[in-house]
């Protein structure tokens, strides 16, 4: 009588049940190209001021539209930490930039300006994306006048500052 060896099959199933998922997890870790905060700390002595995760919300004004979210809290924490770096500046200027499109520069700039405006500080958000401007859309503003019309001398600085529906927050 020939029958399957139950003990051998059970051991093979247990081994496969552990080995295959562990192999996939290890390969995922090995080929993960995402930059993590620990990687930055290992590469440089520059302090990491904050960490903002990707937003599941479809709106860019998360701080105003969803103030109790983890992302809004991350921006408030980032603002608090930045205040230590800018404590001596009467009117601090903060630049948000990156080398790649779709990195979240506009999202970060909008929400960072928003959390500063919530401190009852007059805040001006300047959108310097001359190729594909989009900040004006997020605030429902006109794109008739802005940085480019000011740079060519068509408008004065007072003419390009647009008031938003949020207190203490203006946009250029």
| Residue-averaged pLDDT | 89
Radius of gyration: 25 Å
Summarize the amount of helix as a percent range.
40-55%
The count of β-strands is 3
Order of strands, main sheet, comes to 1-3-2
Largest sheet data: 3 strands, mixed
**Shape, please?**
elongated
Structure description:
Helix 4 packs across helix 5 (105-117). 15% of the residues are buried. This protein is mainly alpha-helical. The protein is built from eight helices and three strands; from the N terminus they run αααααβαααββ. The longest helix has 25 residues, at 6-30. It has helices spanning 6-30, 37-43, 62-65, 70-85, 105-117, 135-138, 147-151, 157-160, and strands spanning 123-125, 162-163, 169-171. A three-stranded mixed β-sheet has the order 1-3-2, covered by helices on one side. A hairpin with a 5-residue loop joins strand 2 (162-163) and strand 3.
Short description:
The chain is mostly helical and 172 residues long. The chain has helices spanning 6-30, 37-43, 62-65, 70-85, 105-117, 135-138, 147-151, 157-160; strands at 123-125, 162-163, 169-171. Strands 1-3-2 form a three-stranded mixed sheet, covered by helices on one side.
Keywords:
single chain; 172 residues; mainly alpha; 8 helices; elongated
């Amino acid at each position: 009588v020939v029958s399957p060896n139950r003990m051998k099959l059970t051991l093979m199933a247990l081994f496969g049940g552990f080995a295959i998922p562990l192999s996939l997890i290890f390969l995922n870790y090995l080929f993960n190209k995402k930059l993590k905060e620990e990687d930055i700390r290992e590469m440089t002595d520059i302090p990491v001021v904050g960490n903002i995760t990707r937003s599941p919300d479809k709106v860019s004004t998360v701080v105003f539209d969803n103030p109790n979210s983890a992302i809004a809290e991350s921006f408030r924490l980032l603002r608090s930490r930045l205040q230590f770096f800018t404590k001596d500046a009467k009117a601090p200027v903060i630049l948000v930039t990156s080398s790649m499109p779709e990195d979240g520069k506009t999202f970060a700039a909008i929400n960072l300006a928003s959390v500063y405006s919530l401190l009852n500080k007059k805040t001006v958000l300047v959108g310097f994306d001359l190729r594909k401007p989009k900040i004006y859309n997020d605030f429902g503003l006109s794109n008739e006048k802005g940085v480019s019309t000011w740079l060519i001398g068509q408008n004065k600085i007072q003419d390009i500052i647009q008031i938003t529906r949020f207190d203490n927050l203006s946009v250029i």
